[in-house]
Write a structure and sequence with these properties.
The structure is a single chain. This protein is α+β, with helices and mostly antiparallel strands. The chain folds into two domains: 259 residues, no CATH class; 104 residues, Elongation Factor Tu (Ef-tu), domain 3. Helices cover 37% and strands 18% of the residues. The protein has a six-stranded antiparallel beta sheet with strand order 14-15-16-13-10-17. A five-stranded mixed beta sheet has the order 4-3-2-7-8, sandwiched between helices. A hairpin with a 7-residue loop joins β2 and β3.
């Protein structure tokens, strides 16, 4: 936990309401996201009990499994879920945009939109990942066939769950993570996984503090768990007798329908409060203005979605159960680069996030006190435009002369630290150490020896400079799969989907 987030949590406790950790929204929120709330049966690994899903508050679809231990009912449930999820994915792809040439020089296209699935918490992402794993290898012919939509659903759920691991990706979003990125509650990070408690801190009901609303959220009768786990008391006293009633031998069709209706009513009471909370959370996120680089990350999501859409519709094989050693290392390296880029982009978009780096000395903010916008130098045969500016700052400077810096307001421009000096405080001013930083600017000012208007900070302008840079990071060097060393199992065999892939001890 950082210094500022710790302070924000302390202030949340003192003031009785969550405190902002961001001034802008760092996640993309679709105009019609697919909200999905899931419940599983306790004591059975990944046994779906119910799902409430839809792309609008008033357009919910409830899917119930009356006997989650029955494998045939599970796959019938998956078939019904596939109709909703695949229908949404097909409807959200939009049209093809023609882009510029790709790496090979060929024109490329991108779908104009992409699906966004929002779930209550990371545990639901894990449930959908396992549901995808248990369905994407199923056969549509032979013994125990499933509907053709079931393995397709499994592949898309696997893809979306894998994208949820990518920092900054918003194809699948956990509401608790998104909210905790933008607001600091007065409780622990573990308690923030309770959607009702976190929402109680962020938007408490009138007349209540965040502490009171979060305490009320611990009552499962008022706020059932957001899933996929259910409340143990509900399991023992309500759910188990209702499931048993549906399986009682000798029931007439009317009696069985009454038992199923009672089960559906009880489960609806568990799902509906979370469903309403989810749409409230979506509205809260929408209330923040989007950060400047959010759209760029969404374009990356659309690129990924387009590639996987084409792969599936070109007959590509389902994802293997396990990555090879080389593929796993490449993915880890890619995730590390994505994490570093996401951290920089958030700081560039948001002064409140940048403040963390100002505290550590990796950035500073101040006022331009002097500027030479027409300065040039000529170390070689050609003169170059190299303006100088001086910035007065009260921040702690942990940057040495010669360091290369970037301003979030002018990311195409680099600034080299020429000198750092301690300035005398103004009479009657605050008793803090005031520093002066002299910077030499390069790039982002046009091609002539006269800087374009606004490209050089003017005297009196407030600026921020940092060592952070969202520059291109080359991929790591990895052996080809054929050259996998013996220490990592040697070259793996070519993956061919087999019936054994669908065998899971918990499915």
């Amino acid at each position: 936990m950082s210094t500022l987030s710790s302070l924000a949590k302390a202030q949340a406790v003192d003031r009785g309401i969550a405190q902002p950790l961001a001034t802008v929204r760092h996640v993309h929120v679709s105009d019609r996201p697919l909200v999905l709330v899931a419940l599983t049966l306790a004591g059975e690994a990944n046994a779906p009990l119910a799902v409430m899903v839809g792309d609008g508050l008033q357009s919910a679809t409830r899917l119930i499994v009356t006997q989650p231990r029955d494998r045939a009912e599970r796959f019938a449930f998956a078939e019904r879920l596939a109709q909703v999820v695949l229908g949404y994915i097909n409807a959200r792809r939009g049209y093809r945009e023609l882009l510029g040439p790709g790496p090979g020089g060929e024109p490329r296209t991108r779908l104009s939109d992409a699906p966004q699935v929002i779930v209550p918490n990371p545990a639901t992402v894990g449930f959908l990942r396992l549901l995808g794993r248990s369905t994407r290898f199923r056969r549509t012919t032979g013994d125990y066939p499933v509907d053709p939509s079931v393995p397709v659903l499994g592949r898309w759920l696997t893809y979306l769950a894998e994208r949820a691991e990518v920092p900054g990706s918003c194809l699948m979003l956990a509401a608790t993570q998104a909210l905790a990125t933008h607001w600091a509650s007065g409780q622990s990070a573990v308690e923030d996984l309770n959607l009702a408690a976190l929402m109680g801190w962020i938007a408490p009901p009138p007349g209540r503090t965040g502490q009171q609303a979060a305490a009320a959220a611990e009552d499962p009768l008022t706020w059932p768990p957001a899933g996929p786990a259910t409340d143990p008391t509900f399991d023992n006293e309500v759910l188990a007798p209702l499931i048993a009633a549906c399986d009682r031998p000798g029931l007439s069709p009317v009696q069985r329908q009454a038992a199923v209706t009672a089960l559906e009513s009880a489960i609806a009471g568990q799902l509906t409060p979370t469903w309403q909370l989810m749409w409230h959370a979506v509205a809260l996120l929408r209330s923040l203005p989007p950060g400047g680089r959010v759209e760029g990350r969404w374009e990356s999501d659309r690129d990924s979605f387009t590639r996987y859409w084409d792969y599936v519709h070109d007959g590509g094989a389902p994802q293997p159960r396990r990555d090879s050693a080389v593929a796993a290392a490449q993915r880890l390296s890619w995730l590390e680069r994505a994490q570093a880029s996401y951290a920089v982009q958030r700081a560039f978009d948001d002064p409140l996030v940048m403040a963390e780096y100002r505290l550590t000395g990796e950035a500073f903010g101040g006022v331009v006190t002097a500027a030479e916008p027409a300065r040039t130098d000529s170390p070689g045969k050609r003169r170059r435009l190299r303006p100088l500016i001086c910035v007065a700052t009260d921040d702690v400077i942990g940057i040495e002369p010669g360091a290369a810096l970037v301003s979030p307001a002018r990311p195409a421009q680099t600034a080299r630290v020429v000198s750092v000096s301690v300035m005398a405080s103004e009479p009657g001013g605050p008793a803090c150490a005031r520093s002066g930083v002299q910077l030499e600017l390069a790039g982002g000012m046009g091609r002539s020896l006269t800087a374009e208007p606004g490209s050089v900070p003017a005297v009196g302008e407030r600026v921020t400079y940092t060592t952070l840079a969202d520059s291109y990071q080359p991929r790591g060097t990895f052996p080809s799969r054929e050259e996998t060393p013996w220490t990592h199992g040697g070259p793996p065999p070519v993956y061919v989907p087999a019936d054994e892939d669908a065998a899971e001890a918990w499915s």
